[in-house]
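User: Reviewer 2 asked us to show a designed sequence for the structure in our supplementary figure. I'm pasting the structure tokens here. Could you produce the per-position amino acids so we can include them in the response letter?
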């Protein structure tokens, strides 16, 4: 779940460097202000130009990266590699480019794509934060509601994790089959809708049970002991586990399978 945060950070940094830092850094070396010129006797290692044209009359030994404007290679100039994003490269007959030219687009579509990608990443990050907060509230409120029976429920599910996970997996497979059958046979839509509601309710209630059980396990392991309620520690534990980079989503799926079976394990135990 940390992938969204990483993407947002990279995009924001790219946009900041591209449109704020680099223009100011290049402003002091441009002649005139809106054009970067490498004179015939100059030898420059690298040029990065954002929304400014580049004219090369001398040598750029490494590369030129131009965003939003054109690159002009005069007669007798020498350049390594040129990347033009949103611009074109105009090469004179005797201008030498040793490593190649890559042109990407001839308008501002790249900037638009970056902006849309940043907005999408921000939306995904905000959605993740909202869902995490909602999950935390549900676990806290649900744990508080069952606090009087919390110890009994925790004992009932304490030795049946494999069976609960198998029950949750089977329920998930049944739901997938029903959804697939409903696409082919619309008459099954009411059955699929009822089972979907049952599936979500069972998983949510079971996740509250599992959260409280996890909280009790954490509290028993803590030295010295604290006065936190089990549902508080369990909610925090699940939130931290499901936000571990890369494997957090896998842990949540496993917890969800166990949670789906937790409610039914409790009901069967009563019988």
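Assistant: Here is a per-position design you can include in the supplement:
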């Amino acid at each position: 779940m940390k992938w969204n945060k990483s993407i947002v950070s990279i995009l924001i940094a790219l946009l900041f460097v591209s449109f704020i830092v680099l223009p100011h850094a290049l402003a002091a070396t441009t002649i005139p202000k809106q054009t970067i010129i490498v004179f015939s006797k100059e030898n420059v290692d690298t040029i990065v130009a954002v929304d400014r044209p580049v004219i090369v009359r001398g040598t750029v030994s490494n590369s030129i990266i131009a965003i939003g404007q054109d690159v002009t290679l005069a007669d007798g100039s020498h350049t390594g590699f040129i990347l033009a994003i949103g611009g074109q490269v105009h090469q004179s007959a005797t201008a030498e480019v040793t490593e190649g030219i890559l042109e990407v687009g001839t308008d501002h579509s790249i900037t638009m794509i970056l902006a849309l990608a940043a907005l999408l990443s921000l939306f995904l990050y905000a959605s993740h934060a909202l869902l995490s907060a909602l999950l935390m509230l549900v676990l806290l409120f649900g744990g508080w509601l069952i606090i009087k029976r919390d110890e009994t429920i925790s004992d009932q599910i304490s030795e049946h994790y494999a069976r609960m996970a198998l029950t949750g997996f089977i329920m998930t497979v049944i739901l997938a089959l029903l959804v697939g059958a409903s696409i082919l046979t619309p008459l099954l839509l009411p059955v699929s809708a009822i089972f979907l509601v049952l599936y979500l309710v069972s998983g949510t209630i079971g996740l509250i049970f599992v959260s409280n059980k996890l909280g009790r396990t954490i509290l028993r392991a803590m030295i010295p002991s604290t006065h936190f309620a089990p549902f508080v520690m369990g909610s925090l534990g699940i939130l931290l586990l499901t936000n571990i980079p890369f494997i957090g989503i896998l842990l949540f799926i496993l917890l969800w399978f166990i949670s789906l079976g937790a409610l039914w394990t409790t009901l069967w135990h009563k019988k």
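For the response letter, you might also mention the following. The radius of gyration is 30 Å. Residues 109-145 form the longest helix (37 residues).
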